[in-house]
Amino acid sequence: MLNTRVERLVLGMLAIIFAGMLGYVLIEKVNWFDALYMTAITLATVGFQEVWELSGWGRLWTIVIMFSGIGIFFLIVGHIAQQAVDFKRYRRFRMAKRVKRLNEHFILCGFGRMGQAIARELKEAGKSFVIIEKEPEKIDMLVEEEFAYVEGDATQDEVLLEAGIERATTLIGVLRADQDNLFLTISARSLKSDLYILTRASIPESIPKMKRAGADNVINPYDAAGVKLARQAMVPGVVDFVELILNRRNLDLTLETIIISNGSETVGKSIIDLEIRKNFNIIITAVEQGNGEANFNPDPHYKFMANDKLIALGITENLERFVQHCEVD
Description:
Elements: H1 5-28, H2 32-44, H3 56-100, E1 106-109, H4 113-124, E2 129-133, H5 136-145, E3 149-151, H6 157-162, E4 170-173, H7 178-191, E5 196-200, H8 206-213, E6 217-219, H9 221-234, H10 236-246, E7 254-259, H11 271-274, H12 276-279, E8 283-288, E9 294-296, E10 309-314, H13 316-326
Parallel strand pairs: 1-2, 1-4, 2-3, 4-5, 5-6
Antiparallel strand pairs: 7-10, 8-9, 8-10
Helix pairs in contact: 1-2, 1-3, 2-3, 7-8, 9-10
């Protein structure tokens, strides 16, 4: 049974063609091939010369065919447009369901050159993330890359909620303008107080404003690039080694930030007590205490406290085991 609009439209076009041929055969007494040709050039409106001299009734029949063809043509165009709208709506529906399944994820706002580099790094690290973008050409890139995304203005509360900000752990703001990143920070902080917010500032004057607005960290990409180039020039071997550690594509060794939960069995124990090197085969390179005091190369006898932030070096599997050990069962 023909149950789709496409099939009905195709059937309607075939019916018009057959009716046009039959009308010419009966009215003009011509053969079927000439009738088909006349019907085709009438429907196509190409303006070729008539095969024979049309009678008055023949001209009237040509007008009927012409308007019938135009009508069915507009129906087809309308259907194609409707299908495009329906497909876009269906794609957004499926993407919304995909985003709703995310939990403890990253929200990346902006898919420019920096956003694309961040997205590739997050994907390489196996992190769950969603991208917020409003420019159509960037949306096409996101679809091609099969990234989870939300289409809209990242500074709007409803868009951030659609991206699951209440379930996210980190927001990265790399929008084009500093004022947009500032508004984004204000909106995100008002929606979730414990969200870690990392944003970009193109000019140094924007950094204190963003921090006052609630950003945990603000990075000027030009300053960061300049510092990296200077260090690469002064101590290239050290920089290359750090890059080797951080680049997961080259080595399954990484630095990880681990927060000790209140009530975990790690609280009150030292590196020696836990036998971290023996049991987990990782290295604790630094400890940041709850009061902000940083302790690099910590004393093996230092007793870990709740909310201590550890910087640990090791392979991913071992770090994940230690993270579980630092959480509350």
